[in-house]
Amino acid sequence: MEITELKGGIAKILEKGTREPGAVRYHVPRGDGWEQVTWGQVLERTRRIALYLEREGITKDSKVSVFATTRVEWGYVCPAIEACRGVFVPVYFSSTPDQAHYVIDHGDAEVLFTERALLPRVLLRWRDYGKLRRVVVLDLETHGQLEQLVAATNQTHGLDLAIGEVTGRLTTLDEVYRLGAELEARDPARLEAMIAAVEDTDVAAIIYTSGTTGEPKGVVLTIRNLISSTISWFKVLEHAFPPPGERRDILWLPISHMSGWGIMGQGTMFEYETWLSDPLNLLRILPEVRPTMLLSVPVYWEKMYVIALNASPDPDEQHEKLRALTGGCLTFLLSGGAGLKREVKDFFRAAGIQMIEGYGLTECSPNLTMNRLDDFDFDSVGKPMPGVTLRLAADGEVLAKGENVFSGYYKNAEATAEVFDGDGWFHTGDLGEWTDRGFLRFRGRKKEIIVTAGGKNVSPAGIEARFAGRPLIEHVVLYGDERKYLVALITLDELQVRAYAAQMKIEGTFAELTRDPRVVALVQDQVDAVNRELASYETIKRFEILEGHLSVEAGHLTPSLKLRRARVWVDYRASFDGLYEASPPLPRAGEREAASRRTS
Description:
Layout: H1 9-19, E1 24-30, E2 33-38, H2 39-55, E3 63-67, H3 74-83, E4 87-91, H4 97-106, E5 109-114, H5 119-123, E6 134-137, H6 143-157, H7 163-167, E7 170-172, H8 173-186, H9 190-197, E8 203-208, E9 218-222, H10 223-237, E10 248-251, H11 258-269, E11 273-276, H12 282-289, E12 293-296, H13 298-311, H14 315-326, E13 332-335, H15 342-350, E14 355-360, E15 367-370, E16 383-384, E17 389-392, E18 397-401, H16 413-419, E19 426-434, E20 440-445, E21 450-451, E22 457-458, H17 460-465, E23 473-479, E24 486-492, H18 494-504, H19 510-515, H20 517-531, E25 540-545, H21 565-571, H22 573-578, H23 591-599
Parallel strand pairs: 1-11, 3-4, 3-5, 5-6, 6-7, 10-11, 12-13, 13-14, 24-25
Antiparallel strand pairs: 1-2, 8-9, 14-15, 15-16, 17-18, 18-19, 19-20, 21-22, 23-24
């Protein structure tokens, strides 16, 4: 494929679906097996949805939302919206009724695609939606089923919605297909005419950020932004692509997130066969699918690393185990969402599997930097992507320019003005530093830097990332702004704790196990190990182990499972402050000498 051939996803579906209609695009889990969806079927279903949306009045700049789990219908709905020159507004499937309402309503969605399990969350705010006039339920087949679901939601949640008031605006995907087929029969070439009118300056999507530091903001991205990012991504990794027909990936991340949506779109652009999965089944199906490319968050690479290490004391057998776990065909893998420990990256590379990490934001479509297969630094987030210009402000903030960078936040001129300066540089809010080889090292979020009482600047994210993959540890949250030393709250991985308890013959509930002296001692060992890698002012002097977990529902994690550190600081303020109430901590054995060596 020539890089100059890249166009929007709908154009690719039309071209491939016409040229090779029988080629397989998706593998969808059905029972114990897989249902194949061909390019021809993708084209047919996309065509019918697009014609239906046009009938519903969706045209240039009209907004359409999707509120659903990772399922194949995203692959039809998103390009259908593009064909209408509409704007895709995704909603995280873990959103609460209020969170979903905020995105759908603030995003001015006129049509919503959702599924049976999530429709009640929409109905709970039904009378508060301003522009929403049609809801398509993806996994119900009849109008009677819609009525039953509305009635059940009324009963369960104590609502008083009249059935007719709701179902008059609801429809099924089967009905959409039926009406779309009728429209196609009347004008078989209508989709081609619609695609011909699409321009790369059209707004493609409004992606609402996870909101780690406040209300979500709608990032406005054009087709040109997305194509620019895809072209640069292709240039960096082109030589690692297997030939057409051998490109396989697994789509398991939320498609409402930039990473999941991007992988689905790139799978379309570069003609991948894509297997759909969920997080629970990802490791199970890897050896079966044998993907040639995979994007994941660090926790899965760390699980594979631990499994391989425990398989044998022999390094060659460990590497063979890792290749078996991944299917043995990965030409490269992508890790994102958080930092990954150096030893994991080194282990994968020793096994012949190259780990690629980068850095980006939704506002940048998303990549700004990436390590290359033949030019990398595992202690960095890579070098700037082709077409991207970066520089560091006086305080180390990363500033960016490029065709991949968005132009502003939807209906939020104030927030837009805050992130663009007079020279057009986008201020990322992240701090970085350059290495002498031109690689960017990430130092953390500017707004979350802890300034100790001694005037030392500490990046909590960088220290917290060092705990990734360590025994029993789930989350570590640092605290210490304007304090003499740092403390932390720690949550534990329940499965690991129970496995350790079984091994040590410790009985009790999970809450009791978190207080067991042997568990606490093991956690202390992990804290001590990390402390030995840090300057004295960065070390964790005290910690508290929480009996529970941080969650999306409590607002401590974003829907994409990123830490909302500021929210944790507020909600657990008493616990953090309590760690300072006792007498000052004494250094553990050898800590004073180690700290002296580190800072001398």
